[in-house]
Design goal:
The protein has 383 residues and is an alpha+beta fold. Helix 3 (23-37) packs antiparallel against helix 4. The N and C termini lie far apart (83 Å). It is flat, with a radius of gyration of 40 Å. Helices cover 25% and strands 25% of the residues. The protein has a four-stranded mixed β-sheet with strand order 10-11-15-14. A three-stranded mixed β-sheet has the order 1-9-8. Strand 12 and strand 13 form a beta hairpin. The chain is built from eleven helices and 15 strands.
């Protein structure tokens, strides 16, 4: 049970006795309530089981003179009704409340006051050195061809990031001098301020701005910040199947960390140049292929290209309408699981712009053969 939970519980109320009850009264009250709420007497009754646990917990504190005194002292410190944390119990911890309080009724450290009750020992953390700090994330852009987006490609990128200043090696101090540990925060980069002498809030040290170091003679290149702009050239692998506008993450290729901290990440926004023939729909490639009226009407075997350069034969069935899409298996985009999408081929029936006399006569004969009374637009008028 936490210190917060312990302070909020009124053990006297749980046992139904007054705060000045004698040990015999406490023992008698406990035995009576324990018999009434014992699990053996209240099988399949979770409420009674919980009451039994609360009763046993209260008795373990109030029946022990030493624990009872510590409990009474704590309640006296925060008021007879027990301490209530603001915001529904989401307030600062007890260690935060008494950190830096120094002496007082609590004996200087809240863990000293309650350590024996929980079987723990008094501990106090003091940070005297700066911890590692992760490097910043950086962003870049890469423009690649449509084919490279499908197959994957390695590109060379120039990145600019915040890195250790080359002139002072990241110390922020002028050449020949060294920074000193900040006396305000003792090098931790953090300081604690109190509100009303009770609540403690940790924030970056105002004197060293969170660095933990004071620079008396700043580096003229970085003005004492210890950081500088770094330009790097690196090889970045763009995975197969990337889409236009997708942002990919390259772990560990961002800005350098401080004090042994991990480097940040590189995020690359990918732009894909359009292809003159092919389009894309998810993991499938798309292609529009023109066919003649005769091929669509009578059927034909036509040759169509694929993105890899090879040609495949597509069988057009007789009577194929304009806009019908055919599927060529396995000629699309490679998926993350190793499989491949398809090539979706849409036929576009071409109507000749001009006809000679022989072609006109042939089409007239065709129209007569199928019958002029057939109207393809009849359904538009409810006929």
């Amino acid at each position: 049970m936490s210190t917060k939970d312990w302070l909020e519980k009124d053990f006297y109320k749980v046992l139904g006795v007054s705060s000045d009850a004698k040990p015999d009264e406490i023992k008698k009250a406990f035995r009576k309530l324990a018999r009434e709420n014992h699990p053996d007497q209240n099988q399949n009754n979770p409420a009674a089981e919980q009451r039994f646990k609360d009763i046993s917990e209260a008795n373990s504190v109030l029946s022990d003179p030493k624990k009872r005194k510590e409990y009474d002292d704590a309640r006296s410190m925060f008021g007879g009704g027990g301490f209530r944390f603001p915001g529904g119990g989401q307030g600062p911890s007890m260690e935060d409340l008494f950190r830096n309080a120094g002496g007082g009724a609590a004996g200087g450290n809240i863990s000293d006051l309650f350590g024996n009750l929980f079987g723990g020992t008094s501990t106090r953390r003091t940070t005297t050195s700066r911890g590692p700090r992760r490097g910043q994330d950086i962003e870049g852009e890469a423009t690649i061809d449509f084919t490279d987006a499908v197959d994957g490609v390695t590109v060379t990128m120039q990145t600019v990031s915040d890195d250790a200043c080359a002139a002072c090696s990241g110390t922020g101090a002028k050449s020949g001098t060294l920074p000193k540990v900040c006396p305000t925060c003792q090098g931790s980069g953090m300081q604690t301020s109190t509100s009303g002498g009770v609540f403690a809030v940790s924030e970056p040290c105002k004197d060293c701005r969170g660095r933990g170091l004071i620079v008396e003679e700043p580096c003229p290149v970085c003005a004492g910040s210890g950081r500088g702009r770094s330009t790097k050239s690196m090889q970045v692998r763009i995975p197969a199947g990337v889409t236009d506008g997708q942002k990919i993450r390259i772990k560990g290729k961002g800005g350098a960390g401080e004090n042994g901290g991990a480097p940040g990440d590189l995020y690359v926004a990918v732009h894909v140049r359009p292809h003159k023939l092919f389009g894309r729909k998810a993991d499938n490639l798309t292609l529009t292929v023109p066919v003649t009226f005769t091929e669509a009407a009578l059927g034909a075997d036509i040759s169509v290209p694929t993105l890899g350069g090879q040609r495949v034969t597509l069988k057009i069935a007789p009577g194929t309408p304009n806009g019908r899409t055919f599927r060529v298996r396995g000629k699309g985009v490679r998926k993350s699981d190793g499989s491949t999408g398809d090539l979706l081929v849409t036929v576009e029936v071409q109507v000749p712009n001009a006809l000679n006399d022989t072609a006109k006569e042939a089409l007239a004969s065709f129209a007569a053969a199928i019958g002029d009374d057939s109207d393809p637009r009849a359904s538009l008028y409810g006929g």
